[in-house]
């Protein structure tokens, strides 16, 4: 029985990454919204704090479950942190700039609504960037060097 690329994608590391992502997104996004809306922290502190909490959950589950990595913690944690920081800066920076641009066209729009929307958009960009970074850099295996989906 041959494995199609779609089947491999849906049953391989990407499917596991999405499953882990649901959990760490619930944790991290809940923390971001709580920090922003309940503790009145600013956008950057809220998203950074929430993503830091989610990143701890993500590292532990992605290392063991998603990518089944044998890499030592010493050789993978700094790569994980680097990918997280780059993805955080790019994804939340882009979404914040988008919210600011929208506010110039819709001056009566609530800043809180725009920044809550930016948190959601940033989270989507962050998820995509993290999968790519962790699959091909942090937890790279012989299979991922060949570009296989498993």
Give an account of the 3D structure:
The protein has 150 residues and is mainly alpha-helical. It has one domain. 81% of the residues lie in helices and 0% in strands. It contains six helices and no strands. It has helices spanning 5-11, 13-38, 43-66, 73-105, 111-138, 142-145. Helix 2 packs antiparallel against helix 5 (111-138) and helix 3 (43-66) packs antiparallel against helix 4. The radius of gyration is 17 Å and the shape is elongated. It starts with a helix and ends in a 5-residue tail after the last helix.
**What kind of sheet is the major sheet?**
none
Distance N terminus to C terminus?
16 Å
- Structural shape: elongated
Report low-confidence residues grouped into runs of 5 or more: none
Instruction: Report the sheet-strand fraction.
Output: under 5%
Q: Assign the structural class, choosing from mainly alpha, mainly beta, alpha/beta, alpha+beta, or little secondary structure.
A: mainly alpha
Order of helices and strands: HHHHHH
Mean of residue pLDDT? 88
Q: How many individual β-strands?
A: 0
CA-atom Rg in angstroms: 17 Å
């Amino acid at each position: 029985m041959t494995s199609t690329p779609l089947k491999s994608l849906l049953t391989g590391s990407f499917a596991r990454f999405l499953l882990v992502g649901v959990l760490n997104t619930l944790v991290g996004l809940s923390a971001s919204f709580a920090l922003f809306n309940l503790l009145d922290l600013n956008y950057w502190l809220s998203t950074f704090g929430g993503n830091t909490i989610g990143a701890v959950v993500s590292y532990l589950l992605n290392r063991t479950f998603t990518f089944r990595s044998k890499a030592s913690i010493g050789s993978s944690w700094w790569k994980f942190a680097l990918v997280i920081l780059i993805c955080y800066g790019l994804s939340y920076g882009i979404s914040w700039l988008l919210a600011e641009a929208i506010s110039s066209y819709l001056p009566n729009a609530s800043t809180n609504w725009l920044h809550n929307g930016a948190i959601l958009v940033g989270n989507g960009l962050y998820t995509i960037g993290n999968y790519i970074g962790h699959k091909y850099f942090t937890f790279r295996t012989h299979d991922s060097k060949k570009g296989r989906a498993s």
